[in-house]
Amino acid sequence: MARTNDFRTVVATGFWRDNIALVQMLGLCPLLAVTTSVVNGLALGLATAGVLTLTNTVISMMRRALIPFVRIPLFVLIIAALVTCIDLLTNALLDDLHQILGLFIPLIVTNCAVLAQAETVASRKSVGEALTAGLATGLGFLAVLVTLGALRELLGHGTLFAGMPMLVGAGAAWLQMKLPFDGMLVAILPPGAFFGMAALLAMRNRLTRERAAPAAAPETTADTAQ
Hints:
The chain has about 230 residues and is an all-alpha fold. The protein is about 70% helix and about 0% strand. The chain has helices at about 1-15, 30-35, 40-60, 70-95, 95-100, 110-120, 125-155, 165-170, 190-225; strands spanning about 160, 175-180. Strands 1-2 form a two-stranded antiparallel ribbon. The longest helix is centred in the last third of the chain and has 36 residues, at about 190-225. The radius of gyration is 20 Å and the shape is globular.
């Protein structure tokens, strides 16, 4: 039971409580620039989640052999190697999508959240816990990218899931939806990214307060009774 609770805590922390976009406010440059559609956010989110998971796993496996004063350069080297592999793989298999994402896949190397995970989690935890933390953190970032991309695509283009065949093949063409309006230009411009991010932050803060309120209520009642 204790291990199950620990697993849930790690997942909740990475995905929600310490979400790298909505709480730590890291990786905002690619998040705001790329999320003009669901497919763009999904592609970059998958790449980032893959790097986080693999980086945590590799570093955790070799944590006992690390020399402390050279650990940071080694972390960066591992991250850069994995990002390069993903970039080359995307270029080979998803060329059209790779051209749209441009430099934002290589820029994963500069995402402080990846290095922070390597330093605070992977180098100190077991392989299973490090892998779980990396995956949960990556999925939390992916969820924000996809949600913001869907919001901006819906309001800016009047479409949803447009371009999905670039990611998963021609069989996904049926997913594309065309809504009966052309959208608002501001939603796909930089101000639209900030407006959308502000809306997601406000939504998360509201949900967090609503979940915290029932926990605080019994304590208040007990104090009153005393």
